[in-house]
User: Fold Deaminase from Embleya scabrispora.
Amino acid sequence: MRKLTYFIGATIDGFIADRDGGYDFFPVGEDVVAHLVAEYPETLPTHLAPHMGVGPDTEFRHFDTVVMGRATYEPGMREGFANPYGHLRSYVVTETITESPDPAVTLIAGDPIAKVRELKAEPGGKGIWLAGGGRLAGSLIDEIDELVIKTYPVLIGSGIPMMSGVFGAHAFTHTGGTVLAGGTSVATYRRT
Assistant:
């Protein structure tokens, strides 16, 4: 069975964006970019990847599919990138976008849990990247097999939490991590 990984960037106080959805306060330096290129090149937007040294023959080690919420998807769409991760199968969970702006982007208007379970049950393939946002992650908590959290050395006090909703405690085991030169830590957790 394929696993669902919530791979996300957050502040020390657990926010993935400010109240308005902005995230330009994250100190994404050369160390973070180098780590992403080396370890998670498939998480770089298709239009930026070549400028960061990720070529068409780069092996994607972790994911072949991305699932994201509407608020995570829309900034790229507003900038003219209707399929920001064109190198992955792309799914957007939304009740407000009724027609996909790109034929390769599949909209999930109904139950995201059912669709994620269907994707996880597919034979073979790599994992599924849950790219955000917080409400979607909270609704999918029972399906998340792994967390990869890039914690940036910044506090913002309030904003969009890494995960929100009503759910009970879920135990995860720390399975690895590293601290990059600029102070960003990358930690991996597996569902216990």
